[in-house]
Amino acid sequence: TVYMEVQPKFALQKEKLDRIMEKEKLYTNKDVSVEMITNRLHTTRTYLAQMMKEAYGMPFTTYINTLRVEEAKRIISSQEATKMEEVAMMSGFSSASTFTKTFKAITGQTPHTWRGELRRSLHIGINRDRIDYKSAVLMDIKNSSLSLRTALYMF
Question: What's the rounded Cα separation, in Å, for the pair 52 and 58?
């Protein structure tokens, strides 16, 4: 969720919109529209546009796409979907090409590049843990608190 200090006149509607988006994840509906949101908030298009500018610093479409990209990152990170087309659909984009273009516009990277960097960072973390573990075991051998046979079994 995007947080900014909001004028009191928009605070209640912003809170309602944040709650709706967080609980119902309407942004994952590829057909979500300004009309759908104005009906849910019992407000007008003009008021919603003003609120979006004041409360979020962006137009409605950018707000929805930002939430969709964050959802896509969550899906990619959790490995709920392996194909980018699936990620696109699950996060509310109408097509894989729109997803890729929007993801890159918001993050500066394509979804494939972002996923590759995530995997590399996780792999580096795993390898670092293994190195630390092996170093600790080798120190135990050196300090004679662990037999060589036990250490070899651990690797």
Answer: 6
Specify the DSSP element, H or E, that contains 9: helix 8-24
Q: Residue 111: name the closest of 78, 69, 64, 66 by CA.
A: 69
Nearest to 103 by CA among 75, 60, 61, 69: 69
Tens digits of pLDDT across the chain (155 residues): 444 555 677 888 899 999 999 999 999 999 999 999 999 999 999 999 999 999 999 999 999 999 999 999 999 999 877 799 999 999 999 999 999 999 999 999 999 999 999 988 887 654 554 445 455 545 544 555 444 444 444 44
* Nearest CA-CA partner of 1 in 9, 20, 46, 11: 20
Q: Note the residue count of the chain.
A: 155
| Residue 55 · residue 14 · CB < 8 Å | yes
**If we measure between CA atoms, which residue out of 111, 64, 63, 65 comes closest to residue 87?**
111
Entry pTM: 0.74
- Angle at 15 (CA atoms; ends 89, 45), nearest 5 degrees: 70
